[in-house]
Design a protein that fits this description.
By secondary structure, the chain is an alpha/beta fold. 46% of the residues lie in helices and 14% in strands.
Length: 402
């Protein structure tokens, strides 16, 4: 499925609140917080010249979030950042003075954090970030996971001391239960999706993702002409598209949102002109993108800043995982999880089917994001035919060869 953005808001400036969230000052705040993370490092940007040549494009670059802050996913930037902001705001209220990120380890701030419980629903990666942020800040985390979340991913979250709650149903069911239980118990929900009356915290999560765009623009020789980003509820796509629209203005790249055909809730919103709950049947291998209702905030941004919406099939996602693990020519090895390479899968399909509509040609400079590494190593090995450790060993061996 390929759907140009025909929304009446397409190309209009972002809503004032969203522009504030995703703008330059917000991104500055994110970088200030990241400067105080002991394991923060800019993630790599890989050029894929062999693939670009095959596709008839000028350049293809992949921003690799597979090792972000030790969590293996771009979501390391969002949930933990929102947790830190919320803990510091609560500490400021209780202590009657301004507190900043460098105060997180002070006894009086940690005393406030210890009385806070942060809750969220997750497919895996967002929950790890919230749990890690809570552990670092000294708060308690309760993470709700639906029936489709693997035991491997549940264990990865629980390592950060979070209490885990299994929920029958899918991701949307876990979101509703997390919100209900948190309201009953007076906990704070740190969700990466939004709904009417609940927007600020998901906005903070999205704000955390602006670090990816900042880094990529610094690493690229010149801005991209096209960007393909995958979507679950739409948060990462909206953060990237929104920040690019603000900092590049009329020079912004053509932006394409890519989703699993089995869980295309952002495309559903694009068709309807507003957020809708899309029907679902079989689960998708792209587990981190299996969402059936888009975030209200994300859709508000994407209605203005996205240029097209498209879907990819199950085989497309797995094929890209394998291609990145066994690249052609001088292209580097990249470990991409089931959802990590979906933007690239969209690019490959778009070149075959929508090249003219998107203006993809030999001068195009395309940016995609590997949003996750092998966050479920067993599933990765099953799909790729090699363990992530063996894939990385091959990369290290290639890099060591003179």
């Amino acid at each position: 499925m390929f759907l140009p953005n025909r929304n009446v808001l397409h190309g209009e400036p972002l809503d004032a609140a969203d522009a504030e969230t995703l703008g330059i000052a917000g991104a500055d705040t994110v970088e200030h917080f990241l400067d105080h993370r002991h394991n923060h490092a800019m993630t790599p940007l890989h050029a894929l010249p062999a693939l670009a040549g095959e596709l008839g494009l000028g350049t293809v670059h992949v921003k690799d979030e597979g090792f972000r802050l030790g969590l293996g996913s771009f979501k390391a930037l969002g949930g933990a950042y929102a947790v830190f902001r919320l803990v510091l705001e609560e500490a400021g209220k209780r202590l009657g003075r301004h507190v900043d990120v460098e105060d997180l380890d002070r006894a009086e701030v940690r005393s406030v954090a210890a009385r806070m419980t942060l809750a969220c629903a997750t497919d895996g990666n967002h929950g790890r970030s919230v749990a890690q942020g809570a552990e670092l800040a000294g708060a308690r985390a309760v993470i709700f996971v639906h029936a489709g979340v693997s035991d491997e991913r549940v264990s990865a979250i629980a390592r950060y001391g979070a209490a885990m709650v299994r929920v029958d149903g899918n991701y949307d069911d876990s979101v509703r239960q997390a919100a209900r239980v948190a309201a009953e118990k007076g906990w704070t929900v740190v969700s990466d999706t939004s709904w009417p009356g609940y927007e600020r915290i998901p906005g903070l999560v999205m704000q955390g993702y602006t670090a990816i765009v900042r880094e990529a623009l610094r690493q690229l020789g010149e801005p991209p002409t096209h960007v393909f980003v995958q979507a679950g509820v739409g948060g990462i796509a909206a953060a990237v598209a929104g920040h690019l629209a603000i900092v590049l203005g009329a020079a912004r790249p053509t932006f394409v949102v890519v989703e699993p055909a089995r869980a295309a809730c952002v495309a559903g919103a694009a068709r309807a002109g507003h957020v809708v709950k899309v029907a679902h049947d079989q689960p998708t291998v792209m587990a981190m993108l299996e969402c059936y209702e888009a975030s209200q905030v994300a859709w508000r941004v994407l209605a203005r800043a996205a240029d097209a919406f498209m879907t990819v099939n199950e085989d497309d996602a797995v094929s890209v995982m394998r291609r990145l693990a066994r690249p052609a020519g001088s292209d580097p090895v990249v470990v991409a999880g089931e959802s990590g390479g979906v933007g690239l899968a969209g690019l490959i399909r778009a070149v075959a089917e929508n090249r003219t509509e998107l203006g993809l040609d030999g001068k195009s400079r395309v940016l995609v994001i590997n949003t996750e590494g092998a966050t479920d190593p067993l599933r990765y090995a099953e799909l790729v035919g090699m363990s992530p450790a063996d894939v990385l060993a091959g990369r290290l061996a290639a890099e060591a060869t003179p």
